[in-house]
Amino acid sequence: MEYSALQKARYGYSPKLPGILRGDVAAILTKAGRPTEAASARAEIKAAFPKTYGMPEVELAAGSNPQARERRGVGVVLSGGQAPGGHNVIAGLFDALKAGNPDSQLVGFLGGPQGIVDGKSIELTAAIVDGYRNTGGFEIIGSGRTKLETPDQFEKAASACKRLGLSALVVVGGDDSNTNAAVLAEHFLASGEPITVVGVPKTIDGDLKNAQIETSFGFDTATKTYAELIGNIERDAGSAKKYWHFVKLMGRSASHIALECALQTRPNLAIISEEVERKRQTLAEVVEEIAGLVAKRAEAGDNFGVALIPEGLIEFIPEFGRLIAEINELLARSAEAFAALSDLEGQLAWLRGKLSAEAFAAFSALPREIQAQLLSDRDPHGNVQVSHIETEKLLTAMVGERLEALAAEGKYSGKFSPLHHFFGYEGRCAFPSNFDADYCYSLGYCAFLLLAGGRTGYMAVVRGLSTPAEQWKPGGIPLTTMMDMEERHGKKKAVIKKALVDLAGKPFKAFAEKRVEWSVANHYLYPGAIQYFGPPEVCDQPTITLRLERS
Ligand code: FBP
Fold it and tell me: Are 153 and 451 in contact (CB under 8 A)?
């Protein structure tokens, strides 16, 4: 196996731990604080989680902890989309576990949660873990999107853990995976299985955050990677002065990635889906806004620009939000009948009469490719895969038409040459930034101390992330405190609440204050590539979103 020079250099990087985690693991304990409550729907969430509801927040503090020395077996699973830093969660967990007792074993379940159900696993040895330290990707054990939620899956998970001699399971995932971790912890307690379940907050989308979680891991590296590329495109746009670049950015629902990238690069336009929804803008209104800006810049001779489009936009435009919800529901109910239809014509005929008149009208007005993308395979949660919908192409086609109409009225005489980009997969497996490398390693360490303290149904958290790593504060938060009741497939369900962009929050306000200026004056900012070695102000700064939220 050959390694790149950076890969070799990263193997030698020692992630920075919070001061409290730098000593002997047997001299750090979990200290309970006040009991917690869910933020809303308390009675219903308490009823759904009678064993784990109301547990106290815990912090990691100095104190004798002989339990950390016990020989134990721990399982770990990576769940959902890749996010930079996953390998370091495993490395931190491994190092802390072995520091507690060198005979302890870390077992990795293969291919995500389905690996637990199927009992597919490997023992993670030092030789394996060392080959992945400070590198991107989830290759060490793979990932998957299977949901662990049925009693049968829970039984299988329990028997896999028992067979492998595991007393704890660490679930690294987003809101849905951690919701399932909470259900699993409750189930194990209720059925007397002595298996501790601890979650770790992962997702590049940045939407697993709340009063207790400052950010999910991966968001930092992914946004810095996209911002580098957007900055390069801005340079090209400003040099060539002939293209309008439309960049769609990942983020299944929330627009945190688009907002952070806008703050880092100052493009001419960035659409924030949450604002579109609040203003109840129609697709035609969004198009009008973009066409207006293209025309305005053309008046100043600037027939170029850079626009950021969040991938989830389409679901936030009210008429399409309703349409997509209806299609999701319909396809979930009649999956077989739908699968039997052989082409788009047949699908269209089938949808007529099943969708509401408004939804069918919205659907019919779309180009055929977009119709087909809306009907393509659902994700395991039954939702449309927004990353497959070419919203950026839909918008530029409509903007082009609108500009032609403006030209016919004598109100536009520029040249509109759009180019399309989609940045998502480019950033999910990048070498983690120092921030993500340090944060993830600390989360892994923290997860070990929680499970050694017998804290089941907790999420590992590290707070104070806008300060130097030395001052970070690791601890644990009961998963039930983050829950809310939401409607899923027609039923109320307790789930961890997804954080959308807060339009009253500092990051959005900072963007809103400047966007008019950025739209016409070309105040592009070029963040350049992530730096791993060099001064802290270049290498260790967290995202602008985190810095603003914590300021
Ligand atoms: P997670 O929420 O699982 O972290 O994944 C997020 C994400 O990267 C989204 O931004 C994107 O819409 C989706 O995954 C793509 O999924 P897939 O990897 O299945 O194509």
Answer: no
Measured between alpha carbons, how far is 3 from 367 in angstroms, rounded to an integer?
46
Among the listed residues 127, 86, 108, the one whose alpha carbon sits nearest the alpha carbon of residue 166: 108
Ligand 1 atom 19: the closest Cα is on which residue?
81
Closest residue (by CA) to atom 8 of ligand 1? 81
Q: Is the Cβ atom of 81 under 6 angstroms away from ligand 1? A: yes
Q: Determine if ligand 1 sits within 6 Å of the CB of residue 115.
A: no
* Atom nearest to 252 CA in ligand 1: 12
Query: Of ligand 1's atoms, which has the minimum distance to the CA of residue 207?
Result: 2
Helix (H, G, I), strand (E, B) or coil at 523: coil
Rounded CA separation 25/521 (Å): 54
Helix, strand, coil fractions of the chain, as percent rounded to 5: 45, 15, 35
Q: Which residue has the tokens 């497996």?
A: 429
Q: Is 142 left (phi over 0), alpha (psi -120 to 50) or beta?
A: left
Please report, as a single letter, which amino acid is at residue 105.
Q
Asked if residues 20 and 28 have their Cβ atoms less than 8 Å apart, the reply is: yes
Closest CA to ligand 1's atom 4: 203
Strand partners, 59: 31, 475
Give me 535's structure tokens: 């001064």
Regarding the beta carbon of 252 and ligand 1, being less than 6 Å apart is answered yes
The predicted pLDDT at position 490 comes to 67
Q: Tens of pLDDT along 98-124?
A: 999 999 999 999 999 999 999 999 999
How much is the mean pLDDT over the chain? 95
Of 205, 302, 436, 438, the active-site residue reads: 205
Residue 507: which region, alpha, beta or left (left: phi > 0; alpha: psi -120 to 50)? alpha
Instruction: Give the Cβ contact number of residue 425 at 10 Å.
Output: 11
d(CA 179, CA 175): 6
DSSP tag of 477: E
Tell me the pTM.
0.95
Query: What CATH superfamily classification does 220-424+505-549 receive?
Result: Phosphofructokinase domain (3.40.50.460)
- The string of pLDDT tens digits covering residues 457-480 is 999 999 999 999 999 999 999 999
Q: Sign of the C-alpha dihedral, residues 312, 316, 317, 323?
A: positive
CATH architecture of 17-218+432-488: 3-Layer(aba) Sandwich (3.40)
Ligand 1 atom showing the smallest separation from residue 251 Cα: 10
* Domain boundaries defined on the chain: 17-218+432-488, 220-424+505-549
